[in-house]
């Protein structure tokens, strides 16, 4: 079974893994740029995943950021098709 994404939240830090077979780097970069004023966001790559590391989530709750980030990413993915 193909794992689309995983999430780990630790003390105001969040890590989201997006499967490279599903998500486009361009869409992730545009989404990261759109959310840069809300938190410190870094993009790291492994062999299988694009890994987003989010820190300093002081202005909004983690679950809100996760949901909105994912919604925006889906929007950007649609534009990449």
> Count of helices?
2
Question: Distance between the terminal alpha carbons, to the nearest Å?
Answer: 23 Å
Biggest sheet statistics:
4 strands, antiparallel
Element pattern in H and E: EEHEEH
Tell me the structural class.
alpha+beta
Number of strands: 4
Identify the strand order in the major beta sheet: 1-2-4-3
- Overall shape: it is globular
pLDDT averaged residue by residue: 83
- Name the poorly predicted regions: none
Strand content: 25-35%
How much helical structure, as a percent, in the residues? 25-40%
Radius of gyration: 12 Å
CATH topology descriptor = Gyrase A, domain 2
Please, how many domains?
1
Give the second-level CATH assignment, the architecture.
2-Layer Sandwich
User: At the first level of CATH, what is the class?
Assistant: Alpha Beta
Could you name the key traits of this structure?
alpha+beta; 81 residues; four-stranded antiparallel beta sheet; Gyrase A, domain 2
Any overview of this molecule?
With 81 residues, the protein is α+β, with helices and mostly antiparallel strands. It has one domain (5-80): Gyrase A, domain 2 (2-Layer Sandwich). 36% of the residues lie in helices and 32% in strands. It has helices at 25-34, 62-80; strands at 5-10, 13-19, 40-45, 49-55. α1 crosses α2 (62-80). The two termini are 23 Å apart.
